[in-house]
Amino acid sequence: MKSMKPKTVSAKIRIISTTFFLLLFPVIFYYLSPVIPLAGASEGIITGSLIIFGLMFIFSIFFGRLFCSYICPGGKIEDLVEGAQNKKFRRTRFNWIKYLIWIPWVFMLLFLFWKTGGVNAVNFTYMTVSGISVSDVPSLIIFIIVSLIFFILPLLFGRRAACHTICWMAPFMIAGKKLGKTLNIPSLHISADKDSCIHCLRCNERCVMSIDVERYVDKENVDTTDCILCSECVDACPVSALSLKWSRQ
Ligand code: SF4
Ligand code: SF4
Question: 147, 162, 154, 161: which is closest to 81 by C-alpha?
């Protein structure tokens, strides 16, 4: 996964951005939580995290899973683990687990809103103290447990294993990305020039999501919902056969 090339501008921006959001993680923890929207729904309240999940869905129609590579603190923890080991994630047969979390979650949310008679209020900072998520010992313990999960899964199973298997936010973005493609809306994606490719497989080696990028070169589009648009493959390609492109797919 290590490159001998100097870091590109996009790689530097990604490092700065993800480090910033990792430092902010104790503050924004509840705004990414799947539990807070359920607690809010049981009182008929739309919470900050539910608003964020909705924005994530809309954002992903145009920008795919850019959130995962430039913002997500959980993803950053996984990338830091990746620095300690260099294992590809090969258990893609377990990718369905995140839907096993997400689909019942959606139904539970709708059920709770229905049970309380719909939406009574919007409270962006619900269950935080002055907007800060980790403000007492119980919330600190939960924060440490969640952070450890994002540390241990890639350590055991390879790069971004938590993104593949348990991330409750990924399905929002996968759904948004699929909707954008179905409606033929222009979006950001990794484009490939099959005539330039020399099949060196460096893109495969570098892909943080362990995607077989080279397999998509013939299609001239890395057309998979696993891609988080980190551009590592673009930076790794010695003949510039890959690029980040804004167009209809
Ligand atoms: S295919 Fe490229 S842009 Fe997509 S996740 Fe892999 S390395 Fe990142
Ligand atoms: S790194 Fe570039 S040249 Fe090598 S296989 Fe991937 S797309 Fe082809």
Answer: 154
In whole angstroms, what is the distance from residue 152 CA to residue 228 CA?
21
> What is residue 142's three-state secondary structure?
helix
* Any ligand 1 atom below 6 A from CB of 237: no
Residues in a beta bridge with 94: none
Band (pLDDT 50/70/90 cuts) for residue 38 is: very high
Q: Which of 240, 92, 238, 215 is nearest to 163 (CA)?
A: 92
Classify 97 as helix, strand or coil: helix
Q: Cα-flanking dihedrals φ and ψ of residue 127, to 5°?
A: 65, 15
* pLDDT surpassing 90 at residue 22: yes
Q: Taking phi first (over 0 means left), then psi (-120 to 50 degrees means alpha), and beta for anything else, what does residue 136 get?
A: beta
Asked whether the predicted pLDDT for residue 237 surpasses 50, the reply is: yes
Instruction: Work out the pLDDT band at 5, boundaries 50, 70, 90.
Output: low
Contact 206, 236 (CB under 8 A): yes
Contact 230, 203 (CB under 8 A): no
Residue 148, phi then psi, degrees to nearest 5: -65, -40
pTM for the full predicted model: 0.92
Instruction: Report whether residue 209 contacts ligand 1, using a CB cutoff of 6 Å.
Output: yes
User: Atom 8 (ligand 2): residue with closest C-alpha?
Assistant: 197
Beta bridge partners of 188: 246
Ligand 1, residue 210: give the atom nearest the CA. 6
Q: What is the position in ligand 2's atom list of the atom closest to the CA of 242? A: 7
